[in-house]
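Retro notes, structure queue

What went well: the backlog is down to a handful. What didn't: a couple of records were mislabeled last round, so from now on we paste the full input next to the output in the thread. Example, using NAD(P)H-dependent oxidoreductase from Ornithinibacter aureus:
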Amino acid sequence: MTRIGIVTSSTRPTRIGHHVAQWVATQAPDGVEVEPIDLRDLALPLLDEPEMPSSGHYAHEHTKRWAALVDGVDAVVFVMPEYNRGYNAALKNAIDYLYAEWQGKPVACVGYGWGGAQYARSALRQTLDRVGMVVVDGAALVFEETLSTQGAVTADDTLAADVAALYGALVAAAPTEPGTGSAG
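Corresponding output:
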């Protein structure tokens, strides 16, 4: 069984990302266990650890809880909006809290917005590469095509195929044995 964390990255009061994340979770194939993770619930303050994340020494309980959530999954899907052609600050902050936990962790991005979050997904890829994650192709939801502004997903064949492919790629890149970090 492959455990995949589905991270809702938007923390806005009027967000719809949790609806998108829930839909992504319902698309998980047999053999995949989904772990919902909501950055709003995690409530990470702006990076406040006294040491660099690469040291692995975390002083605060919120950081230890976040690190345990990431360590507890084999792969991650970031469900993210596009804000001003970039990805949101809460997601950047959450990534910056950790370092070793990201090394070799397979990741896909499901972006949503008027242009399918193409700019945000491109910008995020640079950060994910830098922290050592194994980036696989993700999916894009476009307002008034595959996503309503209220968060209802109306998947077409392309979106369904993209989400199925991202799950397949994450499972293929996930560790073959828990705790080994070796991709299968």
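Agreed that this is the format going forward. Reviewer comment attached to the example: Residues 147 and 153 are 5 Å apart (CA to CA).
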